[in-house]
Amino acid sequence: MNESMKPACPPKPDHRPPVCYGALQLESRYLLSPLAGYTNLPFRRIVRELGGVGLATTDLVNARGLLEGSEKTLQLTQTCPEDSPFAVQIFGSEPQQMKDAAQLLESRGVHSIDINMGCPVNRIVKGGAGASMMCRPSDTVSLVQTVVEAVKIPVSVKMRLGWDDSELSAPFFSREFEKVGVVAVAIHGRTREQGFRGVVNHDGIRRVVEAVDSIPVIGNGDVTNVAEADFMLKTTGCAGVSIGRGALANPWIFRQLVQWEQTGTYDPPGNFDDRLELLLRQFRYLLEMTTEKRAISMFRKMGHWYLKSMRVKPAMRHEFQLASNLDEFGQAVRKIAAEGPAVGSRSGVLPEMHIPVPGGPVERW
């Protein structure tokens, strides 16, 4: 990678106090965002082993499905001793279901509950959950209070800045949530109407920081490298940064951020061979959880981003996606290992990769 292509390393930041979710002190201020289809246990194990993660949160979990014992829902909440501290993000619109789901998770040893109030996807919103909760202030504050009072473990909320630009209600909600015992809020710096269009509104996140008395505000949105995390922290005053897509492209990002905070510099992300080893390790973790057929199917989406970041030729990525059993999977991987990257070297730093977000009108997602 050409030196001019590397993002500039910002100066070492001033000392900041640790981030605490109530009595739970996080080891770093850099959090793995809940990311539908990606932040399962195998990926959480990978980023934890690489280091630097303060808190990892599951894919969003349907409170009703959890209570009904849905196999798919329960799989989203699987954990292991190394996956600590660990938060489950729940969504729903019925206070009793949300309360019961939180209590069930607490009984199973979950360290923290996160309430999803930010998902813009239509199927979630139509059911009265996710970002649509921002349209019912009184009911929403009451629901959140019900969950907080039902458990002893910390409860946080993740939300967007508002439903649309006509009313950025996140500062109001954050104040009210702090009053009823929420320990932290994570803010994605866009409205529901925006989806992922446009740019993150850092000033909007700063208004949330200014609205609360003492709970940490976690900034989220479009952070894919150390320089962007530095910009988020400096411009918003937030206590920490939550990273989703940036961790898919670069699972080393949390370690890099902690190195930068401690020393003012950081190591490059893994090279081709490092990423291939990581791909295989994550797939092995998935095989420990489910059947061969299901593991291969589930891993296709994650494998796609690994191979893109490794700069594997499109034809070889396609062959990998067609694998239907372990023999075909292994054959595809061996070919990829022998071929190496189409751009760059297998032992050097690969070009940065951008992971696109959903496009088009948010109502059609």
Automatic annotation (TrEMBL):
The keyword tRNA processing applies. It comes from the Bacteria. It catalyses: a 5,6-dihydrouridine in tRNA + NAD(+) = a uridine in tRNA + NADH + H(+); a 5,6-dihydrouridine in tRNA + NADP(+) = a uridine in tRNA + NADPH + H(+). SUPFAM superfamilies: FMN-linked oxidoreductases (SSF51395). One of its GO terms (molecular function) is oxidoreductase activity. NCBIfam families: nifR3_yhdG. Catalyzes the synthesis of 5,6-dihydrouridine (D), a modified base found in the D-loop of most tRNAs, via the reduction of the C5-C6 double bond in target uridines. This is tRNA-dihydrouridine synthase. The gene is dusC_1.
